[in-house]
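User: Please predict structures.

Assistant: First:
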Amino acid sequence: MSEMTLSTKPRIPPLDEARFLDVDLFGQELKANPAPYFTQWAKSPPFYAMVQGHAHVVISRHAQVQWALRTHDIISAVPHKGWGTDLFDYFNGLPLVVDYDPPEHSRVRRLMQPGFTPSRVAKIQPLIEGMVDELALAVAEKKTFDMVTEFAGPLMYRVLLGGVFEFDPEIWPIFINLSNALELVATVPPGAPKPAAYMEAFNAVHDFCGRLIEERRVAPKDDLVGTVIAAHDEKGSISIEELFSTLVQLFTAGLGTVTATSSNAVLRLLRHPDQLALLRADPSLLNKALEECMRIDCLGNFRHRFVVKEHVIDGTPIYPGMVAHMSLGAANYDPDKYPDPARFDITRDPRDILTFGFGPHLCPGNILARMVTRAIVGRLVFGFPHLRLAHPDDVIICGGMPTERFPTHVNLRVD
């Protein structure tokens, strides 16, 4: 289904007021402490919430979120303008892999695959481990550091822009500036133009991608960009928009995912010293521990979709014209899937967590993200026996996109 088929928002019938919750889905209170919300939502039917004057539906149970992510004839990924999602339009309507339904989704997703082939991931693993060691030595000398801005963030710039994209360092600021400007989109009133700072950063990356396509067509190179163009541009069909979308998604998604996930994981472990001690006593638990960290501290609280066909989910009616938010974070607290879900237990070995999506919408970079997160957390936890929070009573502020739980800082000590 294309955006043009439903360019006018359908009329939504009157909704049952008893099914509304008075909650700010993207507010600091929910971001900072989602567990009380998620434990309740994960055992309840879908509910309605108001977002910028629009009635949205929130789906939170594990099986129901999985159903919603694969039932495209009822809940579509294709954007519908005017339905109340302006605050999520981070790339000016350019094609994103999450904005397509099958079968078109598969074609767009294949544009990203060259970045995550087993050979490419294996190629950069030693590079990642070397970078982590180098940063660890630097923070050991400083004694105190912010994990977000001085460790995980800078590491991901180097991993993605230098290791995956193989760009020269002088090019990195073009992408970093756009990444930093993305959250400005959510500050704009519906229908208003995007901020000048955002547009300047957006246009710089877009223009760079246009020049890059032409350069690589004339002088091919065996790197990620060259691989994407060679694999999908035999007839000159790949557009600037598609290459731009592929590069920006690879970078911004990877940067945010690993930086936030690793920072949240270290924060969670330090706030549960019994679990940290258990992990240090048995390093073989690292993979299970990280899956449990990603379950209980999911980076993406929500993923939005568009209801295109009337349906009833667990007694809650949904109608065309409504935005549906699949709460990946709440689904990870479903007691039918994860008993006693609010308990942090690194021996749990949780399966089928929805942190990276599900089915055709599973993040293609999840293997790389897990590998880098494991390298970061393992190096800090096992390399610094006195690792601790520099200010244990700090209130952690969560920034990033409206749907994210991205800590703005996690201050640590290693002396």
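Second:
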Amino acid sequence: MAAMGQGACNASFNEFQQQMWPVLMVEFFLAFAGNAFAIYHFVAHERTWHTGIVYSFNLAVSGLLYALSLPFLAAYYYPPKHWRYGPDLCKLERFLFSCNLYGGTFFLTCISLNRYLGIVHPLLVHGRQEPRHAAMVSGAGWLLVAGLSAPTLHFSVLQHKGNCTECLGSATDEQLPRYLPYSLFLAAFGCGLPFLLALFSYAAILRTVCRNPHITRLEKRKVGRLVSVGVALYVVSYLPYHALRNLNLGQRQRCPQAREPDCQGGLPLHSAYQLSKLLVSLNICLHPLLYATLADSMRGWCRAPRGQDRAPTPASGQPPCVTRSRAPHPRNPQIPASPAPSPPGEEARPPYARLG
């Protein structure tokens, strides 16, 4: 009876895995199209890049690189589950997955901190945030992400199972005592810390916006939408994946045969972990929503009056606001008089264009 139950559970789990490959292909098309279009838009249509665009461009590059590996992963899960591409591509696919994962958390955190400084401390950063600074931070971020992901090149190996070959995303049972501390470190440093920084940034942004009486309800809703997208990317994919991965590894360490999941314990947890992998891949499909919100914040908050061309965006990341004409001086027409007074409350409007 136990053998029959074990066979039924394994059959159920194999059926679940067989349904993953079409989902991965859909995610590939969405992620490739969305991130490729975002890169094209940044390169072709953004004449002057501010710091937010620099971080978003790197986030799009990270998503596009991983999207290119999804067809191999979909072919791997196509029944029967079998890796046909050799050990080098196995290591490369797992390395790209890790780089996208932690590149995503790093650049999302950079975007949230950039918005925090621009909205909560606008005077402090005015004229000091330049694209070259963001480019230097992005370069350091890529080196950090590559360093964090490098151990996957060692742990990811091929394992033969009957007539099929598995490409392990974690480690063999023998390497598990060394891999588990590494996985816990990635969860804390690569996911937990960025999430706390992003959460602090967005909470401070909401607090600042909601306390300003000169901001309309529509503008507050736009800020709330932007904050919701930023937090949802963590809650939907990054946090569940890291929690389930380490729970699954802990179960494997306590019970080595957990890699052959049973109905009583291993199957639900291992299936949830496999599902969380799909959610991580889904986040690169959601990044274009972040770019759309970013574009709205860049163009919608601060526009020039009708009939007047907008000047190029300064390197500091603050697009030009409404420019008011000055009447000539009553005695000397060459000397402009004082600027026309602003409408009540407009001078208190924060620089929302820095949301990017």
